[in-house]
Model the fold of this input.
Amino acid sequence: MHGYFFSIGLTFVFLQSEVIMNAITEIEKNLLMPLKNLQKLSKDSAPGKPLMADLWCHFGKVLVFGVDEEETTNDIGPDEIEQRVPKTISNAKHVGDYWKVSFEEGVNHFNKDKLPKFGDNHHDFFDIKLDRIQWRYDFGFHTPLDRNIRLKVWEGLPAETDEPPLEVKNILKQVFLCSDESIKAWICCPSTSCVRGEIMTPDSEYDCRIKLRAGYRYAEEKDNDLCMKEDSLLSDYLSNCKLDKENHSMKLPDQKDHEMPEGFKCTFY
Done:
């Protein structure tokens, strides 16, 4: 148990443009070296096996814990907050001097009115236009061979292509859902994160976590006979998953009809 968790809010008006520019500069600085390393790895990749990378953003809320009781009753300035939140794990030598940070992924309510409208030229803030809405579902499994495998499922991909999204890397096997052929799914090895960070926006109901991830399209272990047997067992089982499109939720197969293969455990969903 970590005790109480707190979100950070504002009790004053600040110069937003200056804060945004400082945040962008810091994000660029933290991404620069990992991107240079990926560029070098990409140049060294084998022919026909390109290295793939994506910058993924999760919306949610940054929470802090390990906060002294006195700190919860006083207003704390931005400089002091910055001193109490570690910029990187490696520089947190004196753990007691820092708050601990947790990230709660997801949003409580999906409000389509806050998204850019189809036909709009640009979004007011990030200068982007909405292309389409996709829903993604994730499950994690531990196998009898002591492997961790992820099931990645997409609803809303373009019907004209069978190419997996860029985010799908380290593919072991495609999964074909019996209940809906339009849903695309793959079992994969977990993604490798090159850098991860949380961005707090105290004047907003949302914070975000960004991840720079890299890998190859297909996992090397997919050619191992024992691993391939496991992948086939798991794929056959997962092909019976049920999707509730109205509520945008996905469930594992009913145990009465399809038992999970012996030795497999669902660890994440």
